[in-house]
Specification:
single chain; alpha/beta; TIM Barrel; Arc Repressor Mutant, subunit A; 9-stranded mixed beta sheet; 3-stranded antiparallel beta sheet; 15 helices; globular; binds S-adenosylmethionine; binds iron/sulfur cluster
Length: 389
Amino acid sequence: MYSVYIHVPFCMKRCGYCDFNTYTAHDLGGGASRENYANLAVREMALVRQWQESQGICEPPAATVFFGGGTPTILPAHDLVRMLHAVRDIWGLEPDAEVTAEANPDTVDDRYIAELKDGGFTRISFGMQSAVPSVLATLDRTHTPANVEAGVAAARHYGLRSSVDLIYGTPHESEDDWRMSIRTALSLGVTHVSAYALTVEPHTWMGRRIAGGKLAGPSDDDQAAKYRIADDMFSRAGLRWYEISNWAAAGDESRHNLGYWHNADWAGIGPGAHSHYNAARLRAWDIAHPKRWAEAMDAEAVPWQGSEKASDSEDLEERIMLGLRIRDGLKISEISRLAGRQPVEGCIDSLIGDGLITYDPSRSAVVPTVRGRLLNDLVIGKLFEAYGL
Ligand SMILES: C[S@@+](CC[C@H](N)C(=O)[O-])C[C@H]1O[C@@H](n2cnc3c(N)ncnc32)[C@H](O)[C@@H]1O
Ligand SMILES: C[S@@+](CC[C@H](N)C(=O)[O-])C[C@H]1O[C@@H](n2cnc3c(N)ncnc32)[C@H](O)[C@@H]1O
Ligand code: SF4
């Protein structure tokens, strides 16, 4: 499967917890302004396609396209549509391609959503984060719960699928606050939810306040309890987990997300975007600063900061880590074939005995339990040991 990720590195305001590659300035120099962004992204697509052809790499058409950020919806809808049409012109799109835009709830109105729909988008991922005003304030969010409700309703009206992103474990968020956010997300009628444990990034405003003792950091126990609450409430509502942080009604899983965990091929377009070519085992990442990224394209070359080929053991490690994040699980027979050996005797049985994984013999797959999802690093470490990695 082939996918395209397009990064839009602009936000109205930097949220205090966020360490993604995004900027609040309108113009970052070198032509990298909000106004000129679509032109630059289209230019990169052409350079990437030239490079792919020179390498005989990648199998278009694109099955999924994902606009992430930053805030893609900070740009006019016609810019997003123009970039999508460039993807279609350069690589082609499968007839039922999944095309997602991430949207901050206070950046879209009915007209904007209608333009996305007309332009070929099929899905919107709203950055809801919480339904509780005090939690939204701690997260420095600018939107209100009403913005989320209106956005999801408009998406439904125009026939787009919606997902919401939630964050749990924000300082001062109670378990009842978290239940309220989940209940609200479910009451919107969305059939896909991503719920992320708040990660304290050291170089952010929130990270500095926590390090300086001005704000209490999240606790592992609190986040683990909230993960269980989420898994329980989503499952009861018919949304099954399909990846550690993602729940969906059957058939509403995001194919783009699944592509990442199934080790598919994708081209990353935009500052800091990552690309991944499975057969060549190649990973590449774009220059992160938009000005230097834009200037690098003046040399008619892909604007990469670096690239590397994964070794046999790195490839195996990556497959193990990805497989242990998804409900499809890790295919032991496939890993053993690639590793050229069977797992050390007793390793898998002891993980089953500890309630961390289950084993599905019909598919030779190990699947993490809720406990195993919470202790994912431990399970990964044990599987590495099992294969002598
Ligand atoms: C990079 S943002 C882009 C989407 C959009 N700008 C927004 O915030 O609504 C994608 C998602 O990453 C998650 N995220 C960002 N920083 C995080 C952090 N420090 N811990 C947990 N989740 C985070 C948020 O849930 C957010 O919706
Ligand atoms: C993992 S996606 C969230 C998906 C969303 N919850 C959904 O289900 O549609 C969140 C963020 O990851 C980052 N991201 C995703 N793919 C990327 C890539 N290929 N290169 C760089 N960043 C990427 C972007 O910042 C994006 O906003
Ligand atoms: S969380 Fe979203 S809106 Fe906030 S700074 Fe990060 S990318 Fe921008």
